[in-house]
Amino acid sequence: MRFFGTKPTVNWLGYKKIGYAFSGSLILLTIVVLIASGGLKYGIDFAGGTLVQVKFKTAPQINEVRAAVDVTGMGGDIQQFGEPVDILINIRPKEQKGENATQEVVAALESKFGKDSFTVERTEIVGPKVGKDLTIKALLAVLYSLIGILIYLAVRFEFRFATTAIIAIIHDTIITLGALAITGREFSLPVLAAILTVIGYSLNDTIVVFDRVRENLRLKRNMELPDLVNGSVNETLSRTIITSGLTLLTVIALFVFGGEVLHDFSFTLLVGIGFGTYSSVFIASALLIDWPGTTTQKLSLSIRKN
User: Fold this and answer.
1) For the chain, how big is the Rg over CA atoms in Å?
2) Which of 208, 211, 204, 212 is nearest to 273 (CA)?
3) Strand 49-56's sheet: what is its strand order?
4) 12-42+130-305: which CATH architecture?
5) Rounded to two decimals, what is the model's pTM?
6) Which residues, including other chains, have CB under 8 Å from residue 189's CB and lie 6 or more apart?
7) Under DSSP, is residue 211 helix (H, G, I), strand (E, B) or coil?
8) β-pairing verdict for 41-42 and 186-187
9) End-to-end CA, the chain
10) pLDDT digits (tens, 9 = 90+) for 247-298
11) Does domain 49-126 have CATH number 3.20.20.80?
């Protein structure tokens, strides 16, 4: 199935310097935001604490809910969750006065709004030790996935292919985390699942391009490497647009209609898949031709050996 009637002839790699500058600016912005904000805003899964979701009969004022919780001396993050009547109260471990944080919050809300004015929809309690353990396991999950990808690509293709693909994946991950930090979204287990999905999706898109590069290296050994890589990107462009376009449409629908529970998850996918498609051309493919000592002849020789 083709998106274009004829093969595109866009000189994608002619814009690689613009791509480098754009990506470098986004990564720098991410670093600045993370430093200024003290790092990512971890959800209860990783930071620990107590989460209480309450549903009011009539929508309350957030300031009034915050004032009621402040009476307990615990404070915490208070926000609307979906509908105006749904309120999410997240109390960090350092702000908890004891194990009965949920009961104290409920008692404070009853005192302020009345006992029958709301119902408790959900409560979650995660201790600091469990949160720390989940954080370590999350980091190891990402690290192991990158190591596995590096080994697979080094065997499947060649080491420079593997390294450029890993750089592109790290690029996508950093920018996605930056988007979470800039928008003030929490890093939770669903977001971690979305990050791992982005890593897999970005890799898949890059492998499609690299696989076509490998085929052309066998067929067009006398072609200059930039022209060969550019042609490979254009040859796979229809597949990229159709696959990424349909995936993004699905994620956009999930973001718009999926509700508050899936909002951060779908937002992470939306940013990650978008930049994963972009990085396949402007990062992975561009780095491949800029790799020191890389020529069509050298890559052809290494491909024939594999």
Assistant:
1) 24
2) 204
3) 77-81, 83-91, 49-56, 118-126
4) Up-down Bundle (1.20)
5) 0.77
6) 43, 45, 134, 138
7) helix
8) parallel
9) 30
10) 889 899 988 887 777 888 999 999 999 998 899 888 888 888 887 665 554 5
11) no
